[in-house]
Write a structure and sequence with these properties.
The complex is a heterodimer of chains A (285) and B (383). Helices cover 35% and strands 17% of the residues of chain A. Chain A is an alpha/beta fold. Chain B has two domains: 10-194, 3-Layer(aba) Sandwich (Rossmann fold), CATH 3.40.50; 275-382, Rossmann fold. Helices cover 38% and strands 23% of the residues of chain B. Chain B starts with a strand and ends with a helix. The chains are: A alpha/beta (285), B alpha/beta (383).
Amino acid sequence: MVQETVPVVVHPFSKYLRAEMMPHIWCQGCGNGVLLNCFVHALDELQTDLDKLVVVSGIGCIGRTAGYMNADSFHTTHGRALAFATGVKLANPELEIVVISGDGDLFAIGGNHFIHAARRNIGIKVLCANNLNYGMTGGQQGPTTPLESVTTTSPYGNIEHPFNLVHLAAASGSTYVARWTSLHVRRLTQSIKKMLQKEGFCFVEMLSPCPEIYGRYNKMRSGLEMMSWFKKASVVENFSDPSKADITPERIVVGEFVDIEKLSYEKMLHEKISKINEKAIEGVS
Amino acid sequence: MSRIKSALTGAHFMNGDVACAEGAIAVGCRFFAGYPITPATEIAEHLSQRMPEFGGIYVQMEDEIASLAAVIGASYSGLKAMTATSGPGFSLMQENIGLAVMTEAPCVIVDVMRGGPSTGQPTMPGQQDVMQAKWGSHGDYGIIALTPSSVQEMFDLTVEAFNLSEAYRVPTLLMGDEIVGHMWEKVVIPSPDKIRIVNRKKPNVSPEKYLPFKPDDDLVPPMACFGEGYHFHSTGLTHDEHGYPRTSSSEVQSKLVRRLCDKIQKNADKIVKVEEVMLEDAEVVVVAYGIVARAALSAIRKAREKGIKAGLLRLITLWPFPEERVAKAAKRARAIVVPEMNCGQMVREVERVAKETPVVFLSKLGEEPHTPLEILEAIRRSK
């Protein structure tokens, strides 16, 4: 009898994830897994050194991503991922710092940290899953909820104007700004790759379907229905005016909006420190 | 070997905020993040100039929440890090004090106390944040807080705060006040080889075997830093020894929170520092801290001149509260006098451990701390 051994099949990407943290907490139809998948693809294509990668998240559904990555990772208090990451990056500029968080975390409670991190142009790469509401707490209205959307705290329709995140990121000084939806996996992966290779503060937004919470109140009960909206409404307008990049039921403007070169804060700071430090040191035999 | 030309040693005349900044540099702090606030601004100003000379980082953040968040980040990147603030900023920091406690990030937070509540009296001294130091962030935890009484101690206790913070992986608070912050006095800075420096324990196992929140016998886990290849996770959520979230296990919650309290409480005898002056035969004991202890010292000397057996127990460590030392002094005394620049905070702790010994509280608010004569009068009345 010929005995054959079945080879152990290891997923080529398993080294990027912490198997012991699975299964993940995300709902069926959620886009967070797509974002994680594209991020891992980008890391793999770039052969990123995982020993030098730090993934930082805030609070919310997507905030659990830090814990799923097999790299150094930190899950901060609500909204403070960028402020925490600023300390990490300045203290060790050799590290690649990626902040993965949600629209509520980054732009409501953490909005001030976002504009200042972008203004300083610190080399932190921000990946934002925008699901148009607060998913973790059960679907409340947030800073990106479209006008007239129904949520658990805007039961009569939202009357607050939403932030246009790519406009905000561009105006605050980001060197790279892009928006895609979870439908645009290839272009999203390319944008993540691009931002990982750039100097300075970069921002990539991914519109993420939240059928269980946001969709249920807004006539899109399944992931498929939300993806159909993305498909129907998305228009690629690369390097168009970010101030006009709306997200409405009829029109979702996606694409790359900013791609400029600018010296990063950490580079300027450490060059200055080296010069001052050099002057202050004297040789002692 | 190389050294920094401008490294300070020997005797200098400076204010308390500058002494604190120099203490930080002397103990190896190489990261400061802060936000301007009276009366702590001089610490930031001085470090913005001095840090780069030592290859260190000064960054001004958008608020105090961000300042402490950045400090915790820098600490996880392996640097000794601190921030400095006053009441309103200290309130904003409470959230991330909890994060530093939960993720066991060594760091130092200086609160140069002014008059509160709210914006209060920015240029006036106060001792109104001392209970907030212990109880300010939500949840149960242990913390270390020190109170300097002089400009020299703004230097010495900044060094000590870093050492304790590194040893116990806990945010350590230096609770100064506007007077010790702004007052100019002589400070003697020892040569670098005479300064005791404690560094956090590093893991001595391979990354595969490393459990980032598994404590040693002293209840403190060794700390890996980002970029060292350990691929560890840290979170403000309740977590197990792997650092992984365990949000619905009573066992994990109980084990973690009790350890965070116990690592301070059970090591209290190693942490606590007090100064005892003429306590041996004291019938009236003044328990004081910070700038007020200076007036108290003068008061007990005057009392002795008048034949009253008075002594001083100066609290250098506020938290963990020096229970045993206070209880011991209380046992021998007929009365205890507690002068504070607040409406009665540490006096509650003194009363708690003084048992039957009567405690007299002397409250003061505003510009002037207690005068020696005011404390003397209280000693006289209680003898």
